[in-house]
Design goal:
Elements: E1 2-3, E2 8-10, E3 13-14, E4 18-21, E5 29-31, E6 34-38, E7 43-46, E8 48-49, E9 52-54, E10 57-61, E11 66-68, E12 74-75, E13 78-80, E14 83-87, E15 92-93, E16 98-99, E17 102-104, E18 107-111
Parallel strand pairs: 1-4, 2-5, 3-6, 4-7, 5-9, 6-10, 7-11, 8-12, 9-13, 10-14, 11-15, 12-16, 13-17, 14-18
């Protein structure tokens, strides 16, 4: 699993699950990045507010492309204009304790 520094995460490629966990990531933007060939979830989210995931590609992932973790919560996460394909479980999976999320303009296909 990959942990990243908070702030702007841009133009990166990930081949392992990325975990965004904790309020130090509040306001973080992940954009124009690629999550591919991952065994597990592509991106996991827990206890973060105002996270933005925009214009990213999620491809060839063995579990969920984006998963809001059951433990913890979030407020105001935006998932915008991403391309999600060749996913073995769910394109986007969220538990009830994540509120005020915006999921808009995403292309999701070939999800098994």
């Amino acid at each position: 699993m990959t942990n990243l520094d908070p702030g702007l995460i841009e133009n990166q490629t990930f081949d392992r699950t990325v975990l965004i966990d904790g309020h130090e990531y509040d306001g973080t933007i992940i954009k124009n990045s690629v999550f591919e060939n991952i065994s597990g979830d592509g991106l996991q989210i827990r206890d973060v507010n105002d996270l933005c995931i925009e214009n990213c590609t999620f491809k060839n992932i063995s579990e969920n492309a984006i998963r809001f973790r059951n433990s913890g919560g979030s407020d105001g996460v935006k998932i915008l204009n991403n391309n999600i394909s060749e996913i073995d479980h769910n394109g986007i999976l969220a538990a009830e304790n994540h509120i005020n999320s915006t999921i808009k303009g995403n292309t999701i296909y070939n999800v098994l």
